[in-house]
Structures are given as C-alpha cells and as structure tokens.
Amino acid sequence: MRRAVRTEDPGPAGNAGPVSADEARPAVRPDNSWPAHADEVRARAESGRTEEARPAVRAEAARPVVQRASVRGQILDALRTALVAGELAPGEVYSAPALGDRFGVSATPVREAMQQLALEGAVEVVPNRGFRVIARGTRELAELAEIRGLIEVPVMLRLARTVPAARWAELRPLAEATVRAATSGCRASYAESDRSFHRAVLALAGNEQLVRIADDLHRRAQWPLVGGPASRGRADLVADAAEHTALLDALIAEDLAVVQVLVREHFAGAS
C-alpha cells in the first residue's frame, strides 16, 4: 500500500495548506505519462545535485550559486514546452510538489518557474493548491495576432526596402527548419523554430527592445486554446511554415508587392 506523504504548496502570499502527494497530482495524468521529457530534465537536475554534493578542494573550485538558477531555467523551458505541446491542459491545476516529483527536483524550482509563467500570463496562482493553466479562447488569439501585426508588419516592410538580398539569403536555414519542424507535427518544435525565424528577421532592424516585446507576444500566441492540440494540426503548421520560405523568396527577389501581401496574410492567418 502506498503511504501518503504530506506536502505543502504555498500560495502567492506564503499561505500553506496540507496537500497529500496523491491529491497534488493533476487528475488528468493518472498514468504518470506526463511529461515525456521528464527523464531528461531529471537527469540534468540529478547531475547538478551530485556536483553540489562533492566537497570543494579549493575555494575557486566551489560551484557558484547560479546552479539553482540553471535548474530553474531548465524546468521553465520544460514547462513552456509542455504548455505549447498541450501537455499542460487549460483549466487544470498543477501542484509544484507533484510536478517536482515528476522532474526529480524539489518543489522550489518548479514553483519559481511557475511564478514566471504567471507573470507571462500562462498560468494563475491557486492558493494552497498550485497553478491553473489559463484557458484561452479565439478572441484572445485574434487580439494577439492583431498586436503582432501592428508591430511587425511595418518593420518587415521597411526591412524589405533596405536589407540586401544576401542578408535575407542567410535566413534560409531558419526558414527550412520551420518546414521540417512543421512536417514532424511536433507543436513544441515548430513553436521554437517559428519564433527563431521571426526573431532573426526582426533583429535586422537593430532594435533589441522590439525583438524582446515581439517575441513575448509571439510566445503567448502559441499557447493552446481550449480544446487541446487538435485546434491547430499538422496541415496548419505546414502551411504556416511554407509562408516563411515564400516570404524569403520574395525578399531575395526584391518583389515588394508580393512581400506586402505575404506578410499581411501571414499575420492574418495567425488568428
């Protein structure tokens, strides 16, 4: 018989309530199948803890304090991947201790990563229980697409008139990477390659703040809608990726009329 272990998951104000390990686990994943990449994250975390446990022979050989931040960063990346892949279900509440158990780490880095996702608007804090994944609808997605269009379209059209064809040709590998990721059907892989391509395009403007803000909006637009991963299937991803290569072809050919049409259609399709 499995012995219940008492854990606590403090809310945003530090209030804690007793939650058993069984109660803390999300009901939607009783078979412990989520997340698929937990073993890799657990291995990295265990490796970090092993290094920390070794006695320091010399003062300069001691591991710096940033190791915990590294674990937190790995957990944050893993949670973002799970969010885009639909493994974190909209509307469901997830406990930091339960997720930490799955990743093989303590609840602290998970909680810190979830707090970051809360700042980004991906989850909300549920006192004494954990974090609920925000359930988003098509209206929010359309609003994000509109804002991205207002920011990125004018910049892309200006770059189309000023950036030489040779510079655009250098982005060909990134565009082709989005096609491969889309063909694989992996939503998380496509999301990362999609953002990488758009970041590279906007970086040509030389405005770091623009790139940072646009990337944050782009990430939010990739979160799944209520209804799960099927809301945007492989065919949609492939069509979206094809627009990247078509856009580069037009930019290299300096066909500004086609560039303008493709850019506007690309953002209209994002909604």
**Compute the gyration radius: what is it?**
21 Å
Can you tell me the residue ranges where pLDDT is under 50 for at least 5 consecutive residues?
1-33, 48-67
Residue-averaged pLDDT, rounded?
78
Listing every helix as H and every strand as E from the N terminus to the C terminus, the arrangement reads: EEHHHEHHEEHHHHHHH
Largest sheet: 3 strands, antiparallel
- The number of distinct helices, counting runs of at least 4 residues, comes to 12
Strand order of the largest sheet: 3-5-4
Q: Overall 3D geometry?
A: elongated
Total beta strands: 5
Distance between the termini: 50 Å
Give the % helix: 55-70%
Category from helices, strands and their pairing? mainly alpha
* Share of β-strand residues: 5-15%
Structure, explained:
By secondary structure, this protein is mostly helical. The chain is about 60% helix and about 5% strand. The protein contains twelve helices and five strands. The strands form two sheets. It has a three-stranded antiparallel sheet. Strands 1-2 form a two-stranded antiparallel sheet. A hairpin with a 3-residue loop joins strand 4 and strand 5. The longest helix has 25 residues. The chain is elongated. It starts with 5 loop residues before the first strand and ends with a helix.
